Amino acid sequence: MTATMTPTRRRSHLTKGQLPKYAPWAVLGVALVLGAALINLIGFNAFGWGIFTAVLFTVGLVAWSGAVEGARKAKDKLATCLVVGSFLIAVLPLVSVIWTALVNGIPGLLTPGFLGTSMNGVTGAADNRAVENGTKVLGGVYHALIGTVQITAVATIISVPVGLLTSVYLVEYGNDRPLAKAITFFVDVMTGIPSIVAGLFAAAFFFLVMGPGTKTGAVAAVALSVLMIPVVVRSSEEMLKIVPNELREAAYALGVRKWRTILKVVIPTAISGIASGVTLAIARVIGETAPILVTAGFATAINNNVFGGWMASLPTFIYTQILNPTSPSNPGPSDQRAWGAALVLIILVMLLNLIARLIASIFAPKKGR
Amino acid sequence: MSKRIDVKDLNVYYGNFLAVEGVNINIEAKSVTAFIGPSGCGKSTFLRTLNRMHEVIPGAYAKGEVLLDGADIYGAGVDPVTVRSNIGMVFQRPNPFPTMSIRDNVLAGVKLNNKRISKGEADALVEKSLQGANLWNEVKDRLDKPGSGLSGGQQQRLCIARAIAVEPAVLLMDEPCSALDPISTLAVEDLINELKDSYTVVIVTHNMQQAARVSDKTAFFNIAGTGKPGKLIEFAETSTIFNNPSQKATEDYVSGRFG
């Protein structure tokens, strides 16, 4: 390893006592082989192989480093191994979820008409025929997609003004008054409300106002907004707080009124953060199942009216397809549709996250000269 | 346009804490007045009471009279917003609005108040204000670029342009050069000398050479100790303060023998 480049520049004493660059790879190779040998003693499986390899790698690298480089470097290597290990443990389930959804969902998603048809008129007999003759699975998620988009849109329309105005009050006018403290407390409490309770609240509320058994998309939207508002308040509050006070003072010093300062200086400065907070709040409620089941019911046909009639949504669609397959004797087609809908839901949430990033970068204060 | 400021028996409070006590001072129109003194002696606090920026801080208030050409800005029914559009302010750290272009920053005082202004008038105002702040030649080709892309000294002059675009009678400057390099400082000091022709300028500074260079009159503030209120010790012609002060504390401070 002592690569002498010139006679005068031998390996310097400054770089003495270091592991060679290939050390981690060498240890990894040995750990992989030893791990495979060990796991074969109790019966081979890939998961166990990974665990054994990780443990052997950590022990090997730390021991080698301790012998050559000393205790400080060995501790550093140990910490690095633990951090990387935790990262892998956190990422594995995520990758696994996406992989499973892709593998199971793609057949459903790629069936022609899956995104463009509803479940209206799709019977158990049709599913049985599809399985027996190997023909394409009928039915799709169009009605559920419409329902999810509409219910979430209405929930957003309700939550954003309420949430944003609340956070403006808390940051700009609250001044730690008792009212502001109470609002902060109740927003925290609202964050912890179980989603089914929010659904029951909305159902009971409309029961009182509109009459018993009112189940529409709007009721579901109210239930979702109960869940969304605290998230929007919290995220916009944080965003408004980090707007430098100097900007407010600069506006005041120009003779600008407080409400104009908030509207034209504070909110525009924080808008990218607020927008991405709102998008994340949408992503948080778009997958809610329980509150929608008790408020919007379940429909198999297309319903474009949020204010009348039962409505389907992607989560409730998945739930009913799995729990009550259209054809009890042949649940295969229902499974396929459910996984397809799950994939659509994941793609929707990912799109929302991308949109949040996009909004954040579009509205961010401009840099450059 | 410029107006004089007369302060009578002004006490400034943060909640129950008396920060500045019993200030009496007469600031002439079309002059440069410098406030000097050790850190924490209340000169910035006092400066902020001159355009009612002080009360933006929760719990802060002032008692006494501040007369702007004879009219008390703390009088009953006086709107702080009107006061502030008459008395502009430049802060210690340059604070251009990050969401706005250079042009919009200059027009901020007009646009944020939703005043109607034609494009021609706006262009004229932008050029006049930037000329007035000695910045026009440096930025005239990139008025639509964000103001945060300028250097620190340019940003500070942009803030001065923004402040004079609303045509105030008085311009308050709170250590405007403390975050700038010597060349930018020189540019701002030259600017202050020019601004004197049309504005009343009040400047807080920690730099005594700067006070000596730019100001006509100088006020020395001091504090007896931590927790005690700051007081105006001496107010006189700048040459008197630096060469022949009447108070021992002033002499100790300007000669560097303080404390």
From TrEMBL, chain A:
NCBIfam families: 3a0107s02c (TIGR00974)
Protein name: Phosphate transport system permease protein PstA
Membrane topology of the entry: Multi-pass membrane protein
Species this chain originates from: Arthrobacter horti
Gene assigned in the entry: pstA
Cross-referenced InterPro entries: MetI-like, MetI-like_sf, Phosphate_PstA, Phosphate_transprt_permease
UniProt keyword annotations, A-Z: Cell membrane, Membrane, Phosphate transport, Transmembrane, Transmembrane helix, Transport
Annotated TM spans: 21-41, 47-66, 78-102, 141-171, 183-210, 216-233, 265-286, 338-360
Functional summary from the UniProt entry: Part of the binding-protein-dependent transport system for phosphate; probably responsible for the translocation of the substrate across the membrane.
PROSITE patterns, per the entry: ABC_TM1
Record's signal peptide: none
Family: Belongs to the binding-protein-dependent transport system permease family. CysTW subfamily.
Record carries keyword Transmembrane helix: yes
Domain ABC transmembrane type-1: 145-360
Highest taxon of the lineage: Bacteria
CDD domains: TM_PBP2 (cd06261)
Subcellular location: Cell membrane
Alphabetized Pfam families for the sequence: BPD_transp_1
Lineage: Bacteria, Bacillati, Actinomycetota, Actinomycetes, Micrococcales
Automatic annotation (TrEMBL), chain B:
ABC transporter domain: residues covered: 5-248
GO molecular function, one term: ATP binding
CDD domains: ABC_PstB_phosphate_transporter
Keyword Cytoplasm annotated: no
Pfam families membership: ABC_tran
InterPro entries: AAA+_ATPase (IPR003593), ABC_transporter-like_ATP-bd (IPR003439), ABC_transporter-like_CS (IPR017871), P-loop_NTPase (IPR027417), PstB-like (IPR005670)
Keywords: ATP-binding, Nucleotide-binding, Translocase, Transport
Family matches, as SUPFAM superfamilies: P-loop containing nucleoside triphosphate hydrolases
Name recorded for this polypeptide: Phosphate ABC transporter ATP-binding protein PstB
Organism per entry: Arthrobacter horti
